[in-house]
Amino acid sequence: MAFHIRQRGGINGGINGGINGGINGGISPLLDFIKKNPGLRTNQISKELNVSSDTLEKQLRSLKKAEKITYRGSKKTGGYFWG
């Protein structure tokens, strides 16, 4: 007896879609916040948006990779900027 596996998303598609939607949903407010508050550091953004540092770091990494934001200045005194 042979089984055929259909690749239509199924359970994994639903799970991945939900996870990705949640992640992307959190990134838009972050980008808007950085646009309105340029130059803030990670700890300041985390406190203002009430987001954990780990979550924020992942979101910032995604935005930097997509070239939506940049980090300017030194590690101690720099901050994030839109564009």
Written overview of the protein:
With 83 residues, the chain is mainly alpha-helical. The chain has three helices and two strands, in the order αααββ. It has helices at 10-36, 42-49, 53-65; strands spanning 69-72, 79-82. Strands 1-2 form a two-stranded antiparallel sheet. Strand 1 (69-72) and strand 2 (79-82) form a beta hairpin. Helix 1 crosses helix 3 (53-65). It is globular. It starts with 9 loop residues before the first helix and ends with a strand. The model has no long low-confidence stretch (mean pLDDT 82).
| Percentage of residues in helical conformation | 55-70%
Structural shape? globular
Q: In whole angstroms, how far apart are the ends?
A: 57 Å
Q: What's the main sheet like?
A: 2 strands, antiparallel
Instruction: Tell me the fraction of residues in β-strands, as a range.
Output: 5-15%
Strand order of the largest sheet: 1-2
- SSE pattern, N- to C-terminal: HHHEE
Q: Kindly state the mean pLDDT as a whole number? A: 82
How many strand units? Answer: 2
Question: How do the strands and helices of this protein lay out in sequence?
Answer:
Layout: H1 10-36, H2 42-49, H3 53-65, E1 69-72, E2 79-82
Antiparallel strand pairs: 1-2
Helix pairs in contact: 1-3
Q: Which structural traits does this protein have?
A:
two-stranded antiparallel ribbon; single chain; 2 strands; mainly alpha; 83 residues
Question: Would you kindly provide a brief summary of this structure?
Answer:
Helix content is 58%, strand content 10%.
